[in-house]
Predict the 3D structure of the following.
Amino acid sequence: MEIEPEAIAAAPAGGRHETDVVIVGAGPVGLFAVFECGMLGMCCHVVDALETVGGQCAALYPEKPIYDIPALPEVSGRHLVDRLVAQAAPFRPVYHLGQQGAALAQSADGGWSLKTDADTEIVAKVVIVAAGVGAFQPRRPPLKGIGLFEGRPEGEGVHYAIHDPKAYAGRRVVIAGGGDSAVDWALALAGSAAHIYMVHRRDKFRAADAAVAEMRRLAEAGKLELVVPYQLKALESEGGTLTAVEVADTAGAGRRLQADALLAFFGLSQALGPIADWAPELADGRVAVDPATAMTARPGLFAIGDVSHYPGKLKLILTGFAEAASAAYAAHGVVFPGKRLKFEYSTTKGVPDAD
């Protein structure tokens, strides 16, 4: 299953919005918080620094299997995200992607104003921080003029993630990196790209053994080319369009790889950033919360998932799911003060139609 475009209502940058709950982080835990809040009648806006939803699952291991999700003995990061987006869709969340929360202020009446680095302001009664271990930013290779090739349509220029694999069909693609993302995408594109160069500084890869073995099998069959041990050296262009990637081995000997696109998978840097200033208390580099409600010492400000901390905390996705439910129930009293909340199981209450 792939995410349907209509399931993600992405708002343009800028402007002022009002909602019940603003969720910072569109990873699995943030997406499930949309569902839990929606089930209690609360509308959500979701902010994420990445250009797509899914957080770490989508950015770091989209094809890597996850084994500890209840009722799913094995599921890829991509499929898990797809299902969570579909689960949240009936509640019509609005996504603000490619934007990082920059400033958070609380008004005299207890409401919140979140401003992003893209001049977007979201006014809400509750803020739920589900930012994992902080905002993700791709590690950019130190290549002169690389910024000139960023932000191009997929299939050309330089990219740090893939949103539309079909855009690389018939293209010459250089993939740089030695981890799961690099190897997984090499395997995924091998059947459609015109040529794939797999560039890594050594012949040993950090990806799953089975994936590496399959990549080597494809290389032997001529479906892709291993360029090891080499590192990126420079980018070539003609008329502003990327035409080749220069690489060099450990002795300095170079090669010129004709290319339409460079996919650089050198991981993501992670930092709490402004979130550290929002939290009234940090513990072990994370936001301290009440384990019963996931609320911080500031009423209306919650933290769930890996970004939160309390004694005995387990950093698991399923723990974050439970915290999302606890936060939603506690948030209901903030969004609807004085309104009695009657607990109902989903089997009794049902879910609204996405249409």
